[in-house]
What we know:
about 525 residues; alpha+beta; Four Helix Bundle (Hemerythrin (Met), subunit A); Helix Hairpins; Heat Shock Protein 90; 5-stranded mixed beta sheet; 7 strands
Amino acid sequence: xxxxxxxxxxxxxxxxxxxxxxxxxxxxxxxxxxxxxxxxxxxxxxxxxxxxxxxxxxxxxxxxxxxxxxxxxxxxxxxxxxxxxxxxxxxxxxxxxxxxxxxxxxxxxxxxxxxxxxxxxxxxxxxxxxxxxxxxxxxxxxxxxxxxxxxxxxxxxxxxxxxxxxxxxxxxxxxxxxxxxxxxxxxxxxxxxxxxxxxxxxxxxxxxxxxxxxxxxxxxxxxxxxxxxxxxxxxxxxxxxxxxxxxxxxxxxxxxxxxxxxxxxxxxxxxxxxxxxxxxxxxxxxxxxxxxxxxxxxxxxxxxxxxxxxxxxxxxxxxxxxxxxxxxxxxxxxxxxxxxxxxxxxxxxxxxxxxxxxxxxxxxxxxxxxxxxxxxxxxxxxxxxxxxxxxxxxxxxxxxxxxxxxxxxxxxxxxxxxxxxxxxxxxxxxxxxxxxxxxxxxxxxxxxxxxxxxxxxxxxxxxxxxxxxxxxxxxxxxxxxxxxxxxxxxxxxxxxxxxxxxxxxxxxxxxxxxxxxxxxxxxxxxxxxxxxx
Length: 533
């Protein structure tokens, strides 16, 4: 079914396959790039948290150091009231406050950083533990701030101890806050490894899918386009180089290339038919040329023989007539010898004149005619011949039909064409039985007029067709005839610039004679190589 698709649809399929290959490879590459970008985007913000976490740890350590100095001062100087504070007391108090504010400020900075990082979808962006620790740190800072507001905390060792406990807890929470970030960074290789394996699997799957789609594309291209084109090219070369016009190109399916192959097969078949027809015409024309040469030679021979025979025949006839008159004078009519001699002499005269008639026909066969041609209605001419033939007693039971049609006029010699038509009709009527049928048709095209005489009589063999127009050749069923009728008809038609062709499918298959005459009178030749001396 796919091979029956039109080329336009096949091209769309190929384009879709190529687009699928490009899309698969592009998506795989883009997925890898975006994964790398997400990893970088996750590391970059977290990297900004590390300095703040380190600063927070340092600030808490500074507060702890300052508180340790205060407690050391309390051990050296037992404090009773504010006035008994040494000179470094206010300095340590102010230093403690500044360190505490630094811790507060660092915690706020850390919180703002977490808030900014929360707006992006990061690979290691879960900061819930940090926020919980910050909340605990805020509580501790609030308690330390309340304890720092009391002015006597530096005078009271118990309060200093409680403040030290809060700072220890603050340091512990700060350490936890930093450990969360370190822990997620330590887990980053595991996440990256999973992502890397997924991307590697996706890349291999994309490559395999692209390779399969490419193989499918190549296979379809070879099956739908390259293979049929190769068959067309090989078939064309085989026909062109070897003149093998019987070769046919066969393609499966019903696409455009199959239609092209069928069109080439039809063209080859028509060309073969035209070539065979031309070869057949060449053979026929060659046979006609050979026949014309034979008839020309026979015409020359017949003219010479006729001239040579005419004089002796005239002498024989004259002598027979003289002898007949002398015998009448010497013998009486009642004498038996007279009757015998007279009958023989009369037979000699009759046969001599019959021979003379034959020689005159031979001369007509070889002689060129100077009869002027005139435009004649061939249908009317044939009708006149039919009126004569139909009244002949021996042909009255046979059917003769002139097929109706338009008038056909041609420049001919009416008497000669009448002789030709009469000869063809009498031959056709002689070849059919009493219930036989003879049909006459007249046609015309731009340059020629055709007269076709068809009968359903005894037909002709191939041997008869080969010698049909030769003088003295006859195969009439009655056994009569001189064999000069068709020869003379052939010469008349040839002098008119036309041709006469006899056809028959075989014995008892009927016969057909076709006369073709030009519609324009041809220029007369100054010499005629068929004219007898």
